[in-house]
Amino acid sequence: MLSASDLRPRLLHAFLGEAAARHPEGTAIDVPPARNRPERQTMTYAELARLTDRLALHLAPRLEPERIVALLLPRTSPMLYLAQIAVLKAGGAYTAIDPSFPDDRIAEVLEDADAVAVLTDVAGAQRLGPVAGAIPLLDAAALSQAEPPAGAALPADVRPEQLAYVIYTSGTTGKPKGVMVEHRNVANLVASDLAEFALGPADRVIQGSSAAYDSSIEEIWLALASGATLVVMDDEAARLGPDIVEWLRSERATVFCPPPTLLRSSGCRDPENALPDLKLLYVGGEALPRDIADRWAKGRRMVNGYGPTECAVTCLRGDIVPGGPITIGRPVPGMEAYVLDDALQQVTEGEQGELCMGGAGVARGYRHREDLTAEKFVDHPICGRIYRTGDLVHREPDGNLFYHGRIDAQVKIRGYRVELGEIEARLAALPGVRGAAARLQDAGGVPELVAYVVAEDGVSPLDLDDLRTQLGSTVPSYMVPRRIGLLDELPTTVGGKLNRAALPPMAFTADAAPTRAIVPPATPLESALAAAFADILSRPAGISVEDDFFEDLGGDSLSAALLVTLLREDGAADWVTVSDIYAARTVRGLAAMAEEAGAAADSAAQHVPDALVREGKARPLLANVVQIAWLAGELAFGGWVSWWVAWELFPALFDKLNLVAFVLLTPLITVAGVVLYLPVSVGFTMLVKWAVLGRYRPVRAPVWSTYYLRHWVTIQSARLIPWPMLSGTVFHNAVLRLLGAKIGRGVHIHRGVHLHRGGWDLLEIGDNVTLGQDAHLGLVELDRGDIVVGRIVIGSDVTLQSRASVEHDCRVGAGSVIAPLSVVNPGTTVPSGELWDGVPARRVGPAAQAPVLTAGGRRLHPVVHGLATLAAEGTATMLGALPTGLLALLLCGLLGVGSNEIWTWMYEPKLDPQVLAVVIGVTTISVPVSLVWSALMLRAMGRVQPGVIDRWSLDYIRVWIKSAAVFNAGQWLSGTLLWKHWLRLAGANIGEKCEISTIFDVTPELVTIGAETFFADGIYLGGPEISRGTVTLAPIVLGRNTFLGNHAVIPAGEVLPDDILIGISTVAHASEISAGQSRFGRPSFDLPRRQVVEMDRSLTHDPSAIRYVNRMFWELLRFVLPVGPLLATVLWYKLLVEGAPESTDLEFALIVIPLATLAPLVVLLLTVTAAKWLLVGRVKPAQHALWSCWASRWDFVFVVWARYANAILQQLEGTFLLNAYLRLMGLKIGRMAVLGPQFSQVVDPDMIEIGDGATVTAFFQAHTFEDRVLKVDRVRIMAGATISAGTVPLYGCVVGEGAHVGPGSVIMKQEHLLPGLSYQGVPLRVVRG
């Protein structure tokens, strides 16, 4: 009995005839309007059938069976689809050419296809004139309207085995290879689609693929075979990014067949509701990521299709459901799938092998490539005729297949997938070359592409450099081998195939003179530069001044930094930066930049503020006495207050409370206590400031002078104010006013803006100013051993974006914007209404206008908004403590422990197992329980929608609370395996195998992170853009395998491609980077070649079970850390209880309480010291893989320091006591060295050396995680050098004696700064004057 599919047409165009007969007035093709195409173009099935018949009658006399007509038509009118069908009706076959193809590619296709004609339009005919030769160029539109020739008839004998179309794909021959598909091959697919998807006239199928690719075939016939409407999505629509969702919605799309990357670029967080009409999502073309599958499969049918062109588009497909396995499915009807080993024997179920396809969809073969056809299309004794896909798969018991990548000669070069065979073929096609072989080879830890060639008989020695040049004219730069060598013969296997493993190693030491002509230097500067190039890149024979540092000479990011260091030893080239090398690339180009660089350096120095007269004299002995006395007073007073709270207040509050009331009311009483403490701390600071210092004034004074000491005492008192609690509210501004600052109305001061460090009387901020996350105002700075205090005036409506800095003695005009990570240098005036960017900042254009609100939330009075914010934070705190309280009640109930027993144990600790179980158990479990609870609380708060909201609305309070919760959770989880799971639970979309560290200002539901992405510390991830009373919220999407360096900024709304690197202190913009690229700098530039660390994936991505358990152990150990402060508190109680009977009241107050208070602090600091030396010892320059045990221990020590020592050491900033502790931890600090406020926690202290009298305010990076490998090396700051605020010294750098590095800079790896010079920038540039 015949099945339904057996009754279907066996010719592709016959499907249209059936659909047109059933739905003649239905819309067949719909081309929506676009920017340069205002009118919508539609065509009914009747019109399509009539016009294709007419055009076919014109073509039939020209065609014989198997002859090919080429099509060069854009997807901006129905004519492309009409032409395809007309060629089939006329008995021929077609090949479609994308108008974006280069002329050489078009010529190759036309020649291989032996095209009898080209159907095109007027523009296409003009372009093809010099390319097509004698091939007739036919105007498809004109012919479709013209009367057909007299007597013309359509052929009636078109057979199913006749050629239908040819698709040209990239091939190992170096030329495109044509895949020949017969009517019966593709008709099998179309028939199966009709039965599988049951589409009809109500459906609107999106056609988004280029007609030159086979995926377009299935899109077209999903519609035209079923009577549905084919809706054309041209290239302009496909590039809409986030706006593609609105386009699909407005076009009422019901069927969409995109690659997963297009779905990711849409940034759509809720496609189920955003696209209610979309019923079938048919994805393919690349691997389907888990996050995309889970999000887009909701509310509709999602099908994952797989198929090479050689199997008529799709040969496997499987349904995908949220949370289910991501399979490539089972064979479509009429096809068979086999999993075979190297001997083409079937493997057992679950075992991996090569996927081979058989059945009706297997194509005829490759045009004019009988050898390749015989290799790939095999007559198997059991399976019949099969196609070897070259893909690695396994089959599950249910029949579903799973994809595991390629097994042929593909390699990855700088993020790009490349087929070595194509490089070999193009090399072999060059004059004088008989054969070629290519491979990847390690070169100093960097995988480099190399090739060997065999010269034709009788050819004189080949010019190998010229071969590279010729090859570079036909392939992208990343496909050009770094070196080409010469062999007599290529090594082969017994079977005669190329044996790449037997190729000899390529020498990278420039042991031979170059064979190309060397262009010599023309000036002394070119000579100096050429000598430095040759020295760094080991080219003793010299180089040409026109050689490209990266492509011709094999340089990378590390050698570029070493080159800069070498050039700085010559005063004539001290201006060179790493970015200059990337921009110029050649000696000649670099020399040409000298004059421009000198002008830029002079310009960078022109904003030096008026010099301040240095006042006072350093008095280190006096400083020690004053600082120790103040700290002792703080310790004593803190101890007295704590004693009164513990022995008087708590007993009075809790004496009559039962256990339930005690547990549940503790959070409320804590919040109330903080509220009462706030005015006391502010009042105390005001009193100290006015008594000790009075008003701040512009001044420059030595550190440890009397002025410095008065300032230090003032800011020590200011530390007592709970600044984080006030952030984001008008009460923060009110406190600043009380301390002397002039703050306007509607000013937003974000988290991380540290204004507690003095200088308040010199600060003037206008109305509606925004200071973004971690923005910096340099009212008080350290410079060359001095404290420098200066005035800052910020006009109304100014915005400082994330981590932007304005230094002392600056004025920023009204309405201006300082871009993220930018630095306005001391003494600069920024005019009104301008956008400034860079390090140092420069005008780059006018500031944008404030965005228009899209949400109509009610605007609250700032005071009311501040109260509401504090109330929301207090409520969140109390609700967050609820699970811990309930857990405590549960344990107390189970173990029969009451509040009296707990208080008794605190005062007199004993080994009571029940009490210990409650106290230790609750302390340990409270953190993970609270973390899970906080993520669920964020979910319960509802989703934040993209748009522009009012800064003073209730909607913004929700955003504020959510970002705070993410930051607080990150304090425990960042860098752990659990962190990505918490973020998912909170609403973020995180891919598999991601490594995420510290992130700032994050709204989880607006974040999508692709699989295998790696974050370094301190990432500013899509935070709300706050400006002039508005808040812009937009989703961000990071592609797969993204690397973000420390302090990278990802602005809201960015959709970044796969396989990219964003360097340290760099702002990422999708418009500036493509897949596989790297960007770094301020402003950023492309890194065409970077140093890559290669290591076994079992140590970086795919760990063994024992490594997974090891890492999880150290990460879970974090949750035990709260026990340390608990035991320290118990120690304090015990010392006071035991000391009271042995002392008089005066001795108890003046000796016992202060010493008892000091003891727990010392114990915590010594615990950190012990952890450091016992777990990691003295750190040495080395490399450690992410999943190594050492890296896990190293990370745990960092967390212990953060939890136990950071807050204590912050109180010691600016004192010799902090230096003493850091020395104990391994940091080398010279005499009279001045350390800034970042030294309360130092990673890798053993790797840092600070010379005598140096002044350092920096974020040290003595380590980096490159390619998931921890690299550690030394950082040396020599005597008298100054590292200004916000600067990041990377490992291996050396700052010479007396050198000065300006704020916000990055000192590159292995970069050496010359003594006495001034530098600034990302990367550094010499600043003259």
From TrEMBL:
Record flagged with keyword Lipid biosynthesis: no
GO cellular component term, pick one: cytoplasm
A single GO BP annotation from the record?
A: amino acid activation for nonribosomal peptide biosynthetic process
The family database entries (SUPFAM superfamilies) matched by this protein are listed as: Acetyl-CoA synthetase-like, ACP-like, Trimeric LpxA-like enzymes
InterPro entries linked: AA_adenyl_dom, AB_hydrolase_fold, ACP-like_sf, AMP-bd_C, AMP-bd_C_sf, AMP-binding, AMP-binding_CS, AMP-dep_synth/lig_dom
Q: Which PANTHER family match?
A: FATTY ACID SYNTHASE, NONRIBOSOMAL PEPTIDE SYNTHETASE
Which NCBIfam families does the UniProt entry name for this protein? AA-adenyl-dom
Q: What is this protein called?
A: Carrier domain-containing protein
